[in-house]
Amino acid sequence: MNKILGKCWVLILNLFPLSFFSITGALGSYTVVEGVVGHPVTLPYTYSTNGGVHTACWGLGECMLFYCSKSLIWTNGYYVYYKRSSRYQLKGHISEGNLSLTIENAVQSDSGPYCCIVAIPGSFRFMTYSLEIKPDSFGEET
Fold first, then answer.
1. How far apart (Å, rounded) are the C-alpha atoms in residues 12 and 110?
2. Backbone CA torsion sign across 55, 61, 65, 71
3. Where are the transmembrane segments (predicted)?
4. Which of 63, 73, 86, 100 has a CB 3.0–4.6 Å from the CB of 58, allowing a cystine?
5. What one-character DSSP code corresponds to residue 37?
6. Burial of 76 (0-12, 13-18, 19+ CB in 10 A)
7. What is the pLDDT of residue 141?
8. In 10 A of CB 48, how many CB atoms?
9. In terms of Cα–Cα distance, which of 82, 81, 72, 80 is closest to 114?
10. Helical H segments across 16-129, by residue range
11. What local confidence, expressed as pLDDT, does residue 138 receive?
12. Which region, left, alpha or beta, applies to residue 19 given φ > 0 means left and ψ of -120 to 50 means alpha?
């Protein structure tokens, strides 16, 4: 039975591009992070570097198999080599596995799903967040 199922998945993956398959669509879970307009907000993510450092990315939208949709940041495990905007920062020690994404000066339109994918040989680690940016209820200027 497993051989038949394996062949079916190979057939499906050959018939459809990988971009059709959404990881979060299959798992259906998000970690919710809340932020306030005008303030920085951080989406936390760390991984163990015991097996070495790895290429990783952050993207807007749900996690897709093997890549970040609408890329915000790419790192080779040591430094950021692509950043869509200076508002997106990795402020932790990247080479120690801290890939927490900080969005500076959050705006309401930053709300929505975000995905972090770490390319570990033989597998991928991913985390999907739902970011909710709320108005500053105190009306304070930043």
1. 34
2. negative
3. none
4. 73
5. T
6. middle
7. 52
8. 10
9. 72
10. 23-27
11. 66
12. alpha
Q: Which of 82, 127, 77, 73 is nearest to 101 (CA)?
A: 73
Q: For residue 1, what is the enclosing H or E element? A: none
Sequence-distant (≥ 6) Cβ neighbours of residue 92 within 8 angstroms: 46, 98, 99, 100
Q: What would the two tokens of residue 134 be?
A: 């709320």
Query: Which CA distances in Å does 54 have to 60, 77, 122, 124, 140?
Result: 20, 5, 12, 10, 40
Residue pair 141/120 in contact (Cβ under 8 Å)? The answer is no
In the chain, alpha helices (H): 2-15, 23-27
3-state secondary structure of 126: strand
List per-residue pLDDT tens for the chain, 142 residues long.
434 433 333 333 333 333 333 333 333 457 899 999 999 999 999 999 998 999 999 999 988 776 788 999 999 999 999 999 999 999 999 999 999 999 999 999 999 999 999 988 887 888 899 999 999 876 555 4
Domains belonging to the chain, first-starting first, are 21-134 (2.60.40.10)
